[in-house]
Amino acid sequence: MIAERSLLLAHISSTAFGLAGLLIVLPNPEIIVSLPPMGQTLFQWSMAGGGAAYIVFGALAVALYGIRTLGIATTLAFMLPSIFLSLSSELLGTSTGFPFGDYAYLSGLGYKIAGLVPFTIPLSWFYMGFVCYLLARCGLQVNSSSSWIRHVGAIALGAILLTAWDFVLDPAMSQAPFPFWLFQEEGSFFGMPYRNILGWVGTGAMFMTVAAVFWRKKTILLSRQQLNLPLIIYLVNFAFGAIITVVALDSRFLLPSGFSVLLGVVPAIALRWVSEANRSTSMDMSLKNVTSDEQLKVTIKQANMVVK
After folding, report:
1. Bridging pattern class, strands 181-183 and 117-118
2. Which of 17, 37, 140, 142 yields a CA-CA distance of 20 to 30 A from 178?
């Protein structure tokens, strides 16, 4: 838990540091010039690795949280499909334009796999997808005995939460003064093509479906306190994109930020809130079932005594 919290703090700190660098330091080069040689060297290192660092810290924090809370097998059952399938989608997208549109990654997010996709991108799909699906699953009280409709609902809701984050992430990362990727076509949705939204929903739903199959016999009952880290991760990453979008871009980008709040932030907070009631209800039902089983055993025992 200490390591988990330390990594979460590192994720938040590196995110805040990155915001300061992108919004304050880089637009004002005189700040860099005024630094001593050692300070300039540290700044160059931070700018070279900062974009990758906050993603790595986030992925590690979520991985440790998953192992501690759900177990290593359950965590790997989500991690491996999400990384593999998202990387496949990204490689396909950067090569053919399907399913996200024509785009290309610039430098700043670490080593590129096949020269196309930074290694940090599938890590971000993993940790953000994990917290989105976990919030949706706990909020809808999906367990081993749930109907397929409830399972589909959790997948759909998790994919929507993930895509809502992209409403602030894509403008911030592709259209801000210091971008990390670029769309090679002018999209109709605030510079993004509409198929980018479909690509996000489809990719998220795809690896969440695979995880749901692996988790089909898993009952996950988490309290509000246990869902603190998933919610914090979601809100921190939302804030990163939203602050850049609002500060660095013009006022028309307030609309996608509003969509992100309405479709992502509000449901995420609500799902964490109702999870406590769902957990309590499920625990009460389990206790009643245990009590009923014990009463049945006593009745059977008494009947056998009468027969004898």
Report:
1. unpaired
2. 37
Model confidence pLDDT, tens digit, residues 211-248: 999 998 888 889 999 999 999 999 999 999 999 998 98
| Non-local CB neighbours of 96 within 8 Å, separated by 6+ positions | none
152: tokens are 């589909």
CA distance 85 to 214: 15
- Which whole number is the average pLDDT over 22-46? 80
Predicted structure pTM score: 0.88
Q: What is the DSSP track for 99-127?
A: TT-SEEE-SSS-PEETTTEETHHHHHHHH
Question: What is the C-alpha separation between 258 and 260, in angstroms, rounded?
Answer: 5
Instruction: State pLDDT tens for residues 143-187.
Output: 878 889 999 999 999 999 999 999 999 999 999 888 999 998 778
Q: Which two tokens stand for residue 37?
A: 């040689």
The residue ranges of every structural domain in the chain are 70-307
DSSP 3-state of 182: strand
| pLDDT for residue 296 | 46
Joined together, the tokens standing for residue 155 give 């997948």
Q: What angle is formed at CA 141 by the lines to CA 146 and CA 5, rounded to 5 degrees?
A: 135
